[in-house]
């Protein structure tokens, strides 16, 4: 089984989160940018389904290249109930091959491609969702968690 790489990333408050913090099943989702329409939809869907996820003993972390301050603003503005991790150097995103050349509105640039990992407490990757569509994503995630739950 493929392993999630070792990592140590700060959350929005500067607390360092590592693989050792993975307890039970964890959703680690990578998204392009705080406070953009698709990323807000995805984050709010996770927020609104947190009771269901908690009942399955699932923890959620969002990861982007945004700063702690931007993460704090996003959390406050959207009333998010999970941590956002800072990957400003895109080291973890690069290791997982989710930091890629993207074409947005005809313009090419490097960025995070929306990708979700479901990981167990031993850092085993149980499922990888590539090229995630923000709107349907929570249903796909819950369906998978109910199958393995």
UniProtKB/TrEMBL annotation:
InterPro entries: AhpC/TSA (IPR000866), Peroxiredoxin_AhpC-typ (IPR024706), Peroxiredoxin_BCP/PrxQ (IPR050924), Thioredoxin-like_sf (IPR036249), Thioredoxin_domain (IPR013766). The keyword Oxidoreductase applies. It catalyses: a hydroperoxide + [thioredoxin]-dithiol = an alcohol + [thioredoxin]-disulfide + H2O. It holds the Pfam family AhpC-TSA. Gene3D superfamilies: Glutaredoxin. It is an enzyme of class 1 (oxidoreductase). Residues 1-149 form the Thioredoxin domain. One of its GO terms (molecular function) is thioredoxin-dependent peroxiredoxin activity. Keywords: Antioxidant, Disulfide bond, Oxidoreductase, Peroxidase, Redox-active center. Its EC number is 1.11.1.24. Monomer. Thiol-specific peroxidase that catalyzes the reduction of hydrogen peroxide and organic hydroperoxides to water and alcohols, respectively. Plays a role in cell protection against oxidative stress by detoxifying peroxides and as sensor of hydrogen peroxide-mediated signaling events. Belongs to the peroxiredoxin family. BCP/PrxQ subfamily. This is thioredoxin-dependent peroxiredoxin. It comes from Corticicoccus populi. The gene is bcp.
